[in-house]
Amino acid sequence: MTTLSRRRFLKTSAQASGGLIVAIHLPGCAFGGALPIDVADDGFVPNAFLQITQHNEIIFYCPSDEMGQGIRTGLATVIGEELDVHPASMTVVSAGSHEDYNNPEYAMQLTGGSNAVRAFYLPLRQIGADTRALILQAAAQDLGIPTSQLTTRNATVIAGDRHYPYGDFLVTASSLPLPENTTLKNSRDFQFIGQEITRVDAREKATGEAIFGIDIDVPDQVAAVVVRPPVAGATVTSFDPTAALASSGVLQVVEISSGIAVVADSYWQASRAAKRLQVTWNNPALSTVSSDSMRADLTAALYDGDDAVTDDTGDIDSALTSGAPPPQVIMHSAEYFAPLLAHAPMEPVNATLRLRNGEADLWTGVQAIGAAQGLIERITGYPRENIRVHNQYLGGGFGRRASLAHIIEVTEIALAVNKPVQLVWSREDDIRHGLYRPASLMQLSAAVDDTGRISGWRAKRAGGNLTPDYMRNSLPALMPNLPEFVLDGLTAATDYWLSRWSIDGSSVEGLHETYDLPTRQISHVTVDHGLPLTFWRSVGHSYTGFAVESMMDELAEAADIDPVVFRLKQLESKPRMYEVVAKAGELLTAMSVPEGHFLGFAAHSSFATDVAQIAEVSVTDNLIKVHRVTCVVNCGTAVNPDIIRAQLEGSVMFALTATLHGKIDLAEGAIVQSNFHDYPILRMDEAPDVDVFIMPSDEKPTGIGEPGVPPLAPAVANAVYRACGQRLRELPLRLA
After folding, report:
1. Are 584 and 577 in contact (CB under 8 A)?
2. Do residue 172 and residue 251 come from a single domain?
3. Do 324 and 385 sit in the same domain of this protein?
4. Buried b / exposed e across 28-60, counting CB within 10 Å, b at 16+?
């Protein structure tokens, strides 16, 4: 992990500016100008993370994007712990685009991978501690009292029976160097970390005051809707704008790189007119692909012997040879399939862009605002410092908002129409023209010895890779000044390398990491149909977890060992997961379920977090009903237990949607589904009760947004087997 190497304190006159500025710098990040934070007329140019005003307002600039996961509250709690300021007492706002806000693990400004709390936990604690130490030094100087006789409580300095707001000491503080490496608190002294603090954005969202990207309305803005090809990769052959231009409110019809944009006074006018647009498209190779042919291609690839091996430990051929001598006693093999999936966040992607006098202002909600800034720089040629990104609350992300095709579209449209433009993707646009989790076919083979331990494990996956599409989408944003042919070459080289000589780690992650598997082989064969792919909540773990945990249950049955005990035998060198599985096993043993209800178990490690789940299921007339899910999690220090519970509850609902309903189909290369009537999400009457048990820990926090997804589908499938005797190895789960 990248750690902080230095911190810089910008000295600004508190009398002139009314505030104190504090910043941390990450390795390789040089301050390149004013931070992207709005300043009041009587204010000052603030720096990263903290601003303390003379009125004792504590402003925290959150470096990670809030998409419902509670990150503003979590990170405010982390910095507030050492600063000695309750998160509810802070003003918490979204940081703009600047290198100072780069995620320490990614070296770029990106929210994803369930790493925000983990990555910023120590840096933000340190800056909080250093800032508190600075205030104490200033107070000691102003009051003439040694720092040893001063303490703090919720943004005040306490000297005997007198309380002084932090803001009283800014003039002196601005003349002092910022302390470094101030000793951090012992966990036993925490007052905010570990407490169930109400979310700092709860009131805004409950009252409807919270502003999302789709809510933006700037003066003189027009609305745009883009007509995109029915098959990904197709381009315009010809189009007739006559009928669209004759529609009410339509201002302009513009050809852009992804299709044809209809610009009107309002969204509904643009949407209606777009339906009247006549466009002819060419037919890319994808237009010959259907769901059935895709599945057949995956099956053929799985057995053609052209896979690349990423992990080959021990003599796997001997371990899996039929008739091998004892202690090997059980051999088993099975295939598992997971389909294409869309993300379907509550708020479809959108962006509002104003280009004026060589400057750009973008209002949106994305997971990578620096990349959005880079795309606008590339397309417009404007200097980076003239491009401001105002990131709003995100109405769900799940990986979808790390993809920025809509930023390219709105920029091309704004350049053409010379007005502020709001582009909104409809639900149909998002499902039919977005990016998808790849379909995956996995074959797992294993041997179990007479002690109940897995003596051989082979896992092979066939499907598309994520990294080439990620590079194709991100490199133009991250390297806006590189020529197009260089970017195309880099992307093509990556695609070629990963499809023929190496393996994309996100394609096979989760196939072996959870358990002790001393003799194993993990391999992959790439099948690329040209459909755009991207990260989906829990990425590769979302399908490998289903395969592995279904296989673990089948192996336990074949070896006639209790499924929890069987898993524990494979966890002797993994104490954290061992404790999680053991605790979940205790809860399972103590459960009493109604007649006709059955329990299924699964566990999976992802994003440095260990999760076990128990699903209580019934089957009536071949319909699967999940009544309750019990989650046991070890995610290190629980910064806010209430948010952890909420994330696991949300993970269960998200994963259960995919388990029971999720499937994207292709017909002649086009996406069949279009909205929630044929791509349904879980309804309230389908939602199970969710119980969460958080394992106590003093370790550094780990991820929580995604690790609750992978165990759910196999836990349900394993319960269904106990209910009716059918092993379901394909998602979504369907009984014969």
Report:
1. no
2. no
3. no
4. ebeeeeebbbeeeeeebebbbbbbbbbebbbbb
Q: Based on the domain organization, do 643 and 515 belong to the same domain?
A: yes
Mean pLDDT of all residues in 414-428? 97
Same domain, 229 and 172: no
pLDDT tens digits, 316-373: 999 998 665 566 689 999 999 999 999 999 999 999 999 999 999 999 999 999 999 9
Closest C-alpha to 662, from 569, 594, 730: 730
**Counted domains in the chain:** 3
pLDDT at 469: 85
Say if CB 112 and CB 366 are below 8 A apart. no
Tokens representing 171 are 């003039």
Q: What pLDDT does 25 receive?
A: 38
Same domain as 453, residue 552: yes
Whether 402 and 442 map to the same domain: the answer is no
Q: What is the pLDDT of residues 364-375, one digit of tens each?
A: 999 999 999 999
HEC per residue, 485-536:
HHHHHHHHHHHHHHHHCCCCHHHHCCCCCCCCCCCEEEEEEECCCCCCECCC
What the block records as the tokens of 663 is 């499937």
Residue 477 is assigned to a structural domain of this protein: no
Average pLDDT rounded to a whole number, residues 214-243: 97
Q: Which residue range(s) make up the domain with 66?
A: 6-207
Q: Which residues, other chains included, contact 351 with Cβ-Cβ below 8 Å and sequence gap of 6+? A: 213, 362, 363, 364, 372, 406, 407, 409, 410, 422, 423
323 lies in some domain: yes
Quote the pLDDT of residue 325: 59
Q: What pLDDT shows up at residue 324?
A: 58
In a domain, 325, yes or no: yes
For residue 410, give the CATH number of its domain.
3.30.365.10
Paired residues of 262 in beta bridges: 225, 253
By CB atoms closer than 10 A (0-12, 13-18, 19+), residue 373 is: buried
Distance of alpha carbon 349 from alpha carbon 337, whole angstroms: 29
Do residues 460 and 336 touch, judged by C-beta distance below 8 A?
no
Which pLDDT score is estimated for 23? 42
Q: Is the pLDDT of residue 580 over 90?
A: yes
Segment 279-291 mean pLDDT: 97
- Residue at a domain's end among 151, 182, 207: 207
pLDDT recorded at residue 667: 98
Query: CB-side exposure of 50: number of CA atoms within 13 Å?
Result: 38
pLDDT: which is higher, 66 or 493: 66
pLDDT recorded at residue 178: 86
Instruction: Choose among 559, 561, 569, 563: nearest CA to 448.
Output: 559
Out of 207, 236, 260, pick the residue that ends a domain.
207
Residues 6+ apart with CB under 8 A from 663: 339, 340, 341, 673, 679, 731, 732
Question: What tokens were used for 387?
Answer: 């491009």
